[in-house]
Design brief:
Distance between the termini of chain B: 24 Å
Radius of gyration of chain B: 22 Å
Radius of gyration of chain A: 24 Å
Helix content of chain B: over 70%
Distance between the termini of chain A: 38 Å
Chains: A alpha+beta, B mainly alpha, C mainly alpha
Largest sheet of chain B: none
Number of strands of chain B: 1
Number of helices of chain A: 9
Shape of chain B: globular
Strand content of chain B: under 5%
Oligomer: heterotrimer
Structural class of chain A: alpha+beta
Number of strands of chain A: 18
Strand content of chain A: 25-35%
Number of helices of chain B: 15
Helix content of chain A: 25-40%
Structural class of chain B: mainly alpha
Largest sheet of chain A: 6 strands, mixed
Chain lengths: 322, 272, 281
């Protein structure tokens, strides 16, 4: 159940947008499609919605083959990056649109719209036009509009991409809570790994039209299947022959069994974090190594710029061979 | 005001106002003045002349038909040009503007060569089928539709491009079919562009002269339109009537423009 | 060293425009109907003009165009249309500039005034000009029945073209670009020449082409104003009409084809010039 995608291929001219995509999205979960822009994740989402057609392959939504069903018959809720608000309609009218198309009785529409306005905290704004709302409010309206039709799946295409950082963070938390309340199968596309890691139950990393890895946020962060996944999900540095996250390096001013030694040549403080750059003594690997420690650790270890240090992976961390 | 006002600002402003005043505003106001020189006499004379009344009625009849045809054609072609991909789209898009660059006299000639009752390509067969085109209202409608053909399209196409397809796709994902999407989403979004295009078409249609002169045969009381009547009356030394008819034509055209420019909401540069 | 994420090789490539879809059955039928109507109304009639001009053979074509009265009419038409276009390029751009960048009471009225020549029936336009610049001129300027009347009439009817094509582009133009140029030390004049004009050039050109095409094809506004004096104020359209009235459709078609050709060449030429200008900038 949920969404079953089998053997999807999509070309734009001679550009391969999606190549043999097979994917099972379980019911009731919040799944993120993560990857760099232009990697094909939005195209995949639009194929699920029926807004784009695939060149081959099938899509099943809740056990029904929808490959050849037009978008308007799929009962899919879609939220666009730039909201796609109906600019000539009030907020309430926007939300009611799908219900009116379905010719639901007036009273029912009214009640449902009230319910949704409450859910997205826009009760005060029901008679405003979209142009009188902020970006975050507009996106909440778009979400309510998509939820109004009680979709079998909810699809969000970079839903917070056009918002500023603070609003994005708020909406992200809110979406997570909303999903816990509504429990509709939800797929959202993002290129922001932090957003994906924070919000989703499971993650699908897509790059250059192919699926790189599928798994829970912890799986992907701790056990990346490839260099690409490792480096896309967070900062990475090279320690000897291995790739490792900068905060997984143990640093010491005293001689110890070490993968590399060097001198601290740069010291940048960002809030509670201190980012160090260590220039290795090994002339064969002259690229500086990034190390991140907390301020408390730096004080405890007595680190200063110019110190000679010994570096090795922290216990329990398995670096990936480069 | 972003930039400070300098002498240059005032010079430019003055120059523009003077230019427009001398070229357009003053001359137009004089026609109004001439019309009302003897109070309402001119208008009364004109409106009691059966030929003038007939000409005005014919003009409105023809203009309404031409506008209806061009609106339906214009909306359809605009949607096809912007929303669909088909071979020859570029050529069609370029050819659509052609009528704006063709002399009305050439338009008349072209239509006469096609629909003329004796020598035209299609005229004789149409006449045998009982359809009189040249020197009849149908011919006048064709001539009028020709010259005002691109106006609706020129207004609609840029707006259709600008609103993009997001809203239409959202409507589709919410269950709206093609017709519902068009009527409830697309049409309201392009409403003002469409109204403006229709008003321009109407103004152009009411005022067409050269092409109609050739296609109509210009027979007073039968195929003479208002603009043709202005020419005849003026040359017949019935200048008061000519001024009055001109005033009525100008009034409709300018009033329509003013109403639209007042009603049209100020463009919201950033709707998102 | 932090490993940078390289964008996928295909990622930067432009994807095909998403908005355009291929034809469905109903839109295909719509396209068929539209093209049929367009052909019946515009394409077939215009093609017949071209065919008619070729019908009389090269001889008719040459005889018509070398007829001294026709040649004079063509010369007058093209010359006046060129001058008028030039004036429009300067004043049209200036008007557009003032309408977009200046703010003053009554600007909205000017906006309506700009559209009047477009909305006004051409025969009325002639009458309008005659009332200020004719024999009964209240300011004592009488251009009726002179070459200058042709210039005036064309100036009036072509007024909106450059203004209306330049205005939207000017509106879109980000003032920050000018401010950036100024902050980099460019003078007002340099900013105008290097930043503004190249950006506006395509729009000015398009407006100029429209205005020229309209200029050489004008008829209605001249009827009452210019007197249609042979070899003096008679324009090409009037010549065509005379040929039609004399039943000489081949000659009429010859002049018509020439007018169509000149309009076409002007549009193409201006397009090429614009491309050259924008490339150089």
């Amino acid at each position: 159940m949920g969404i079953e995608i089998r053997g999807i291929n999509k070309f734009f001219g001679d550009f391969v947008a999606l190549e043999d995509i097979n994917l099972s999205i379980p019911s009731g979960q919040l799944t993120a499609l993560l990857g760099p822009s232009g990697g094909g994740k939005s195209t995949l989402l639009r194929i699920i919605a029926g807004l784009e057609s695939s060149d081959s392959g099938t899509v099943e939504i809740e056990g029904v083959d929808t490959t050849n069903v037009p978008a308007q018959k799929r009962n899919v809720g879609f939220v666009f990056q730039h909201y796609a608000a109906f600019k000539h309609m009030t907020v309430a009218k926007n939300i009611a649109f799908g219900l009116e198309i379905r010719k639901r009785p007036k009273d029912e529409v009214k009640d449902r719209v009230q319910e949704l306005l409450k859910l997205v905290h826009l009760e005060q704004w029901s008679d405003r036009l979209p142009s009188q709302l902020s970006g975050g409010q507009r996106q909440r309206m778009a979400l309510a509009r998509a939820l109004a039709i009680e979709p079998s799946v909810l699809l969000l295409d970079e839903p917070f991409g056009a918002l500023d950082a603070k609003v994005r963070k708020e909406l992200r938390d809110w979406l997570r809570r909303l999903h816990d309340e509504v429990h509709v199968t939800t797929v959202f596309v993002t290129h922001d790994q932090e957003e994906a890691l924070e919000v989703s139950d499971s993650l699908v990393v897509i790059n250059e039209g192919r699926i790189e890895q599928i798994g829970s946020p912890d799986d992907l962060y701790d056990r990346p299947a490839s260099d690409f996944v490792l480096s896309f999900l967070g900062p990475v540095t090279r320690l000897g022959d291995h790739l490792i996250r900068p905060h997984d390096i143990e640093i010491s001013r005293y001689e110890q069994a070490a993968t590399a030694t060097g001198r601290i040549t740069r010291w940048t403080r960002v809030g509670f974090e201190i980012r160090l750059e260590v220039t290795p003594d090994d002339k064969l690997h002259p690229d500086p190594i990034q190390v991140v420690v907390t301020r408390a650790e730096a004080t405890a270890l007595g680190l200063h710029e110019g110190d000679q240090v010994w570096l090795r992976p922290q216990a329990g961390v398995e670096p990936v061979r480069a | 005001m972003r930039q400070p006002k300098t002498t240059g600002t005032y010079v430019r402003r003055g120059l523009v106002i003077a230019y427009l005043f001398l070229l357009v505003a003053w001359p137009v106001s004089l026609v109004v003045k001439h019309t009302f020189d003897g109070g309402l006499d001119n208008l009364q004379t004109a409106l009691s002349d059966p030929d003038v009344v007939f000409a005005l009625q014919l003009t409105v009849y023809v203009a309404v038909w031409a506008v209806v045809i061009n609106t339906i054609f214009g909306v359809g072609v605009s949607l096809l040009l912007v929303r669909y991909d088909f071979p020859g789209r570029g050529i069609l898009s370029a050819l659509i503007d052609l009528p704006l660059s063709v002399s009305p006299i050439v338009v008349g000639l072209a239509l006469l060569l096609t629909y003329g009752s004796t020598n035209g390509l299609l005229g004789p067969s149409l006449r045998d089928a009982g359809i009189q085109v040249a020197f009849a209202p149908l011919g006048i409608i064709l001539a009028t539709a020709f010259v005002s053909l691109p106006l609706v399209i020129r207004e609609l196409v840029p707006v259709l491009h600008e609103i993009g397809t997001d809203q239409e796709q959202a409507a589709r994902s919410l269950g709206a079919g093609p017709w519902q999407t068009f009527r409830r989403i697309t049409l309201p979004s392009v409403k003002w562009a469409l109204v403006y295009g229709v008003v321009l078409s109407l103004a152009r249609s009411l005022g067409e002269f050269g092409a109609v002169k050739i296609m109509s045969g210009n027979i007073a009381g039968q195929t003479q339109t208002a603009t043709l009547s202005v020419e005849e009356k003026y040359q017949d030394f019935q200048q008061g009537t000519a001024y009055a008819t001109s005033f009525l034509l100008a009034l409709i055209a300018v009033a329509a423009l003013v109403v639209v420019s007042v009603l049209r909401p100020k463009e919201n540069p950033d709707g998102d | 060293m932090t490993t940078e994420i390289q964008p996928a090789p295909g990622a930067t490539r432009k994807r095909r425009a998403r908005s355009a879809t291929s034809l469905t059955r109903s839109s295909g039928i719509g396209l068929g109907l539209a093209v049929t109507w367009f052909s019946l109304l515009v394409l077939i009639p215009l093609a017949l003009v071209v065919i008619q001009s070729a019908d009389g053979g090269w001889q008719t074509f040459r005889d018509t165009l070398t007829n001294s009265q026709t040649a004079a009419a063509l010369r007058l038409t093209v010359t006046q249309a060129l001058i008028v276009t030039l004036v429009n390029v300067m004043f049209g751009t200036l008007i557009a500039w003032v309408l977009v960048r200046d703010h003053f009471w009554g600007k909205r009225i000017l906006e309506v005034i700009i559209d009047i020549p477009f909305a006004l029936p051409t025969i009325v336009a002639g009458l309008v000009l005659l009332s200020l610049y004719g024999p009964d001129s209240p300011i004592g300027i009488n251009v009726a029945n002179t070459e200058r009347s042709v210039f005036l009439a064309l100036l009036f009817v072509t007024l909106p073209f450059v203004v209306r094509t330049v205005e939207p582009v000017l509106l879109e133009l980000d003032p920050e670009v000018e401010e950036a140029a100024a902050s980099l030390g460019a003078s007002r004049f340099t900013t105008l020449r290097r930043i503004l004009l190249p950006a506006l050039a395509p729009a000015i050109t398009a407006g100029a082409a429209l205005s020229f095409a309209r200029g050489i094809s004008e008829y209605g506004s001249l009827v009452l104003l210019s007197g249609n004096l042979p070899n003096k104020t008679e324009v090409a359209s009037v010549r065509i009409l005379t040929y039609i009235e004399n039943g000489n459709e081949a000659a009429a078609a010859s002049v018509a084809v020439l007018l169509l050709g000149v309009a076409l060449i002007a549009i193409i030429l201006l397009q090429v010039l614009t491309n050259a200008v924008s490339r150089r900038a």
